[in-house]
Design brief:
The protein has about 260 residues and is α/β, with parallel strands linked by helices. It folds into two domains: about 90 residues, Beta Barrel (Elongation Factor Tu (Ef-tu), domain 3), CATH 2.40.30.10; about 150 residues, Rossmann fold (3-Layer(aba) Sandwich). It has a seven-stranded antiparallel β-sheet. A seven-stranded mixed β-sheet has the order 11-10-9-8-12-13-16, sandwiched between helices. It starts with a strand and ends in a 5-residue tail after the last helix. It is about 20% helix and about 30% strand. Bound molecules: flavin-adenine dinucleotide (FAD) and FE2/S2 (inorganic) cluster. FE2/S2 (inorganic) cluster binds next to loops.
Length: about 260
């Protein structure tokens, strides 16, 4: 896949240690499926995978937390500079299934779910967001701007309920036993979402954000095990994912 250079048209600082770069992407913006990612050149490092956080006309957003050299380099880019981007890559989330749908986001897993909510304004969405602390709970006002009322929680109780977002999901299933789930966040959160949705007998799609190398299926840095007895022993998160139907990785039973 060919890389393109996209011009930064806006730089936002939505929370401490978080930056959102809006880039002019008229050839890309209309082709994106929420959950797909961009592989972004990040100074002297390998490319770094980032989800699309939103699309506004011909512009798209990448909202990231500064955690190391690559994201620090990207955070220093400013309006008028260009970023070198490959994408869209990977498999995104499917359209909303019938019935209630919960978007369950943890930390930097929240941005692709905001793009999903933006793409599907007529879906029967509930939004459940969790993060380690107040400053890491991003995009809350963006969801509110879409007319949604996100359920919030933090590990330390500094915003919303104290606890994990999977606790909010457990409560949500009591009121929405016919619900489905689109989730994105750290692997332990996704494992728990898989367990809860399997126990409820309800569908779930899980977006993984672990480390990658090439981003295009060649290096196997990103493989995850498939469900025992399933079609494949290993799946590549970059090309088979990053979004997987739960049963692909966990099988039909309860994980
Ligand atoms: C499909 C996909 C979509 C992503 N979307 C986003 C997004 O929208 N916003 C965002 O902030 N991040 C996102 N990430 C994570 C992001 O790619 C990493 O945070 C980034 O690559 C870190 O690069 P770095 O050079 O700044 O840090 P590094 O110097 O590479 O690492 C710094 C520290 O962060 C840890 N780390 C690095 N990558 C990850 C990771 N993927 N998961 C957990 N810990 C990691 C390292 O172990 C190390 O401790 C996504 C990842 C994937 C695979
Ligand atoms: S990152 Fe290289 S195969 Fe997935």
């Amino acid at each position: 896949m060919r890389a393109v250079r996209l011009t930064i048209v806006e730089r936002r600082a939505p929370a401490p240690e978080h930056v959102e770069l809006m880039v002019d992407a008229k050839d890309l913006a209309g082709r994106l499926v929420p959950g797909q990612f961009l592989h972004v050149a990040a100074g002297g490092t390998l490319r770094r995978p980032l989800s699309v956080s939103r699309v506004e006309g011909a512009r798209l957003g990448m909202l990231f937390r500064v955690v190391g050299a690559g994201t620090a380099w990207l955070a220093e880019r400013d309006v008028g500079e260009t970023v070198d981007v490959m994408g869209p890559l990977g498999q995104g989330y499917p359209p909303p299934p019938p019935g209630p749908l919960a978007l369950v986001g943890g930390g930097v897993g929240i941005p692709p779910l905001f793009f999903y909510a933006q793409r599907w304004p007529d879906a029967a969405l509930s939004v459940l967001l969790g993060a380690r602390d107040h400053d890491s709970l991003i995009m809350v006002d963006d969801f509110r701007g879409l007319g949604l009322r996100p359920g919030l929680c933090t590990d330390d109780g500094s915003r919303g309920k104290r606890g994990r977002v999977t606790g909010l999901l457990r409560d949500w299933f009591l009121e929405h036993p016919d619900g489905s789930v689109m989730a994105c966040g750290p692997a332990p959160m996704l494992h728990e979402v898989a367990r809860l949705t399997a126990a409820a007998g309800r569908p779930a799609w899980l977006g993984f954000e672990q480390r990658m190398g090439c981003g295009v299926g060649a290096c196997l840095a990103c493989v995850v095990p498939g469900a025992p007895g399933g079609d494949r022993v290993w799946y590549r998160v970059c090309t088979d994912g990053p979004v997987f139907a739960r049963e692909t990785l966990y099988g039909e039973g309860r994980p």
